[in-house]
Design goal:
Elements: E1 2-5, E2 8-11, H1 13-18, E3 20-21, E4 24-25, H2 26-50, H3 62-87, H4 91-114, H5 123-134, H6 136-145
Antiparallel strand pairs: 1-2, 3-4
Length: 146
């Protein structure tokens, strides 16, 4: 049952829960899966680059490649770690995800100087950041009650 009051829509708790899986909204689940997939791809790219696979269109010196590998692996592993808190809607998951997103965006800005396709790395972190900022009270209040 949906009630309209002065242009605002209010749903009863039962209707809202019907649209959820595991107590999470569809958008939350889709962004969570995209975040985990993004972290796993960063680990994959870091591993591929470490094993000698050429990921860049331009040649770079070995120290630059080592930096790429290290940052790819660090962001991927830290992204997976904070995804646990993200899923549990814990305050540390919220704050950790924000920190990894900031690191990811900074890394991708640098990456654009090497290869323009690094701009694709902005998509998932930006969507997750917008969602987190719009729903921060849910993470800080609801997550710490459990």
């Amino acid at each position: 049952m949906i009630l309209k009051l002065d242009g605002l829509m209010m749903e009863n708790k039962h209707e809202k829960q019907k649209r959820q899986i595991f107590g999470r909204s569809w958008i939350f689940i889709m962004l969570f899966l995209a975040w985990v997939g993004n972290a796993m791809l960063r680990i994959l790219f870091g591993s591929m680059a470490a094993s000698g696979v050429e990921l860049l269109d331009v040649p770079v010196i070995q120290s630059t490649m080592n930096t790429l590998v290290t940052i790819f692996l660090f962001l991927g592993v830290s992204g997976l770690i904070v995804s646990v808190g993200f899923w549990q809607m814990k305050r540390w998951g919220f704050l950790g995800t924000i920190m990894v997103i900031v690191g990811t965006i900074c890394f991708d800005i640098w990456g654009i100087t090497l290869q323009y396709t690094a701009a694709m790395g902005f998509v998932v972190p930006t969507m997750v950041l917008i969602y987190l900022l719009m729903n921060k009270s849910m993470f800080i209040q609801e997550g710490d009650k459990k």
